[in-house]
Amino acid sequence: MPKFANLHHSILRCFHKCGTVDHLNQTTAILITSGLSHHAFFLADLLRSPTKDLGYPLLVFDRLATPYIFLWNAIIRGFSGSPQPQMALVAYSRLRNHSVVPDRHTFPVLLRSFSKLRNENPFQFYAHIVKFGMDFDSFVQNSLVSAFANCGYVECSRRLFTENAKKDAISWTALINGCLRNGRAAEALECFLGMRSSGVEVDEVTIVSVLCAAAMLRDVWFGKWVHGFYVLSGRIIWDVYVGSALVDMYSKCGYCIDAVKVFNEMPTRNLVSWGAMIAGFVQCNRCNKALEVFQEMIIQGFEPNQSLVTSALTACAQLGALDHGRWLHRYIDRNKLELNLKLGTALIDMYSKCGCVDEALFVFEKLPAKDVYSWTAMINGLAMHGDAISSLNLFSQMVRSGVQPNGVTFLGVLSACAHGGLVDEGLELFRLMRCDYHLEPKVDHYGCMVDLHGRAGRLEEAIKFIESMPMEPTPGVWGALFNGCMIHKACKLGEQIGNHLIKLQPHHSGRYILLANLYSRCRNWEAAANVRRLMKGKGVDKSPGCSWIEVNGVIHEFIAFDDSHTESIHVYVMLESVTAQLKLATYDLDSNILTFAIDGE
């Protein structure tokens, strides 16, 4: 018996190390030569092996003369957590074809696959659960609550929860998570309050879900209460998942300092907590810090996964940090990270925003599959580089490939039309969006159409478009019209729009400056001076300009009239030298070459 135990332990270690089919072949050969190829316990280990290819274990499974129910459960569990969760349903069907009766462990592992199969129907399996008398098993009931909610049947999930006689922390958390997966964060918090009222003990898993709901609602005060009442008081254990949820909650609520404080105080960290902090800095527009934390994580010996690299690439895109972005691309290739859709889309976005549209196209073409997000990233990349024709051609190619565009896709092509002067094409796309794809235009889409007319000098049409909007025009929409007035020197209309923008946003310095610039452009110097005096009288300060530049892989940040940078003395010396040389060359600054930014609010 001890020899058998030692052999079992040795073979079990082999299975746990199996990462490829070759390793699996070798371990199976040991089973056969040891005369254990039909031993149920060893076969269960084989079915639980971590290899990504479940075809081989399934082949071995098919050759069994009498597969036991726990072996069926093992293969269903393997498929439920695999990239092919639908195969778990197929495995269950084959189980029934073999006249095998499922037990109380079968349905929970089967229903777990519905977390990835949102379009499947769980009702057929509910009928089997009732048929085999397991509808009152609390383990199965909790799994049913999750499965129905994951498939969008929240009301059915609630009904099942209500019928559950034994509502424990697991069943309450399943309902809370179900509400979260369907974007019903307020209901999730109501469930949590109901859980507290019922006297059920709250655990760490529940708190993670509650903090996620607070983050979705941007309810920092509820999150702070949970932090103080449950975490700081010691009512629950402060593990990496609770800490990561706190970092995520504070970041999404805009409380970056609190997020950093929680991160620094965490007793232990894993990839989840590092990822939460990096994504948090990106969320708070502190992308430079996000890259610093990413580098610190690598120094400490952590190997970033696809999600972490995606967050770092997003930071690079916002900063225009091309060297960092290319290093991350090399890291992906060197470590053979699978270029999934999120990672590929992040690479396309990074290269596009860093001015390397050809490299973005190269990554786009390499993607084995493309969803609406990867198509949209490439369409927007071409649009922001002024290649309106290529952007529209890619849009047509996307539609022909069977991928349905979303609202962000239309924002990209409408923006391309606006910057390319393609008025008729833009009007047709706006019509297609509503009539063919049944997408209701948001305020940003109307802003693009106003910009399209304004840039083309069709200011009257732009005004009519604003008047036809079903919602109240935002300052961003009026700003798009003002930009058209600036381009075409429509001083009278521009004056009206500019004053209206100041009324809408009296503390926005950019509104005063743009109106003063319009007056200057129209040679109305007295009016320009009056606007600047008005701005000063109201105590409106101009936000200092800020820029980044990447030199030899290091990102430098510069703020106007700030000398805190270590190289600021040399920078100002160089600027003075350039200014002196320009004066010697009798350089005349023409106000007509100034460009004006449009707020995208």
Describe the structure in brief.
The protein has 601 residues and is an all-alpha fold. The protein contains 33 helices and two strands. 67% of the residues lie in helices and 2% in strands.
Description of the structure:
This protein is mainly alpha-helical. Helix content is 67%, strand content 2%. It contains 33 helices and 2 strands. The chain is globular, with a radius of gyration of 30 Å. The N terminus and C terminus are likely disordered.
List the helices and strands and how they pair.
Layout: H1 2-16, H2 21-33, H3 40-47, H4 55-62, H5 69-80, H6 86-97, H7 106-111, H8 123-131, H9 138-150, H10 154-163, H11 169-181, H12 185-197, H13 204-217, H14 220-232, H15 240-252, H16 256-265, H17 271-283, H18 287-299, H19 306-319, H20 322-334, H21 341-353, H22 357-366, H23 372-384, H24 388-400, H25 407-420, H26 423-435, H27 443-455, H28 459-467, H29 475-487, H30 491-504, H31 509-521, H32 525-537, E1 546-551, E2 554-559, H33 568-584
Helix pairs in contact: 3-5, 5-6, 9-10, 9-11, 10-11, 11-12, 11-13, 12-13, 13-14, 13-15, 14-15, 15-16, 15-17, 16-17, 17-18, 17-19, 18-19, 19-20, 19-21, 21-22, 21-23, 22-23, 23-24, 23-25, 24-25, 25-26, 25-27, 26-27, 27-28, 27-29, 28-29, 29-30, 30-31, 31-32
